[in-house]
Design goal:
Layout (H helix, E strand, L loop, with lengths): L2 H10 L17 H16 L1 H6 L22 H11 L7 H9 L7 H16 L2 H31 L11 H8 L12 H11 L9 H17 L3 H20 L4 H5 L1 H18 L1
Helix pairs in contact: 1-4, 2-5, 7-13, 8-11, 9-10
């Protein structure tokens, strides 16, 4: 039994026909005593309630409050009214609590879930519902494809920097060190020490590539220090440009700075092209 039906059942005994066996000894259920107490308490506050409590024609127990006589269009509204007015002058908190406490708040959870599942299944089985769901799925899949393709296009425009078989020392500096550690002037012994901290094979015993990279860095640095100073400046400038081209690919710094906008614009372009096909 749900909240409203239980509440209605609780109220149904109020104001009903008199028991023809009145005067005989009966065993009264505690719930009936609670209901009588509720009516009595309300009557003490408003005598009209006590007078009307015995008149079934004047009180619809399913829709009328026994405390203030207010009538509602639906039993559920009565329950909400009692909860809202609890503790006011005409609605003593203890009596409302007794009344509402006798109501079974929830039905069987398993039964409720099963009933909802049946209703959902019946609803979703309708042809128009199936068609709308199908269209929503297709639109969702289409949007997901557009997002993934836009991301792929962005990544594909980035470069794929690779380390040459015989790299110069400046290129290795630009390849392995973050820009914050790039020197303003051509790299020196200090730069080599920073590079070696990253490539130190003893720190990467499980990866043989670091041993190879550290060896290449040593050879490249030895060749680097043998160059004239003006030659080092030229090589350093040239390798910085090469590193930037390898990293950015066909993108610009502007594209990187507004990548979220770029992705949205690219997604719109993809969706438009797809809709025209």
């Amino acid at each position: 039994m749900d909240v409203d039906s239980a509440l209605a059942a609780n109220l149904a005994g109020i104001g009903g026909p008199q028991d023809p066996t009145a005067g005989m000894h009966h065993h009264h259920h505690p719930h009936h005593l609670n209901m009588s107490a509720a009516v009595a308490a309300a009557a003490a506050i408003d005598p009209a309630i006590g007078l009307n409590a015995g008149t079934q024609d004047e009180i619809d127990p399913k829709k009328t409050c026994i405390f203030c006589h207010k009538t509602f269009s639906h039993p559920g509204s009565l329950g909400r009214h009692l909860d809202l007015k609890r503790g006011t002058r005409l609605h003593p908190a203890d009596q409302v609590d007794q009344l509402r406490g006798d109501v079974k708040r929830r039905g069987d959870i398993v039964e409720i879930k099963a009933r909802r599942a049946r209703r959902a299944k019946e609803y979703n089985a309708r042809d128009e519902v199936k068609e709308r769901a199908k269209l929503r799925r297709k639109e969702k899949e289409r949007n997901a494809r557009g997002k993934e393709e836009a991301k792929g296009n962005f990544l594909n425009r980035l470069g794929l920097p690779a380390l040459p078989p015989h790299p110069s020392f400046p290129y290795m500096v630009l390849y392995f060190l973050p820009p914050s550690q790039w020197p303003h002037d051509p790299p020196t012994q200090e730069t080599y020490n920073q590079l070696y901290l990253i490539l130190d094979p003893s720190m990467h015993m499980d990866d043989d590539r670091y041993l190879d990279w550290a060896s290449k860095a040593k050879v490249a640095y030895d060749n680097w220090v043998g160059l004239p100073k003006n030659k080092r400046v030229d090589v350093w400038n040239r390798e910085q440009r090469s590193a930037a081209e390898a990293a950015l690919g066909t993108l610009t710094l502007f594209d990187l700075g507004r990548r979220e906008e770029w992705l949205m614009d690219e997604e719109k372009r993809i969706m438009t092209m797809e809709s025209m096909m």
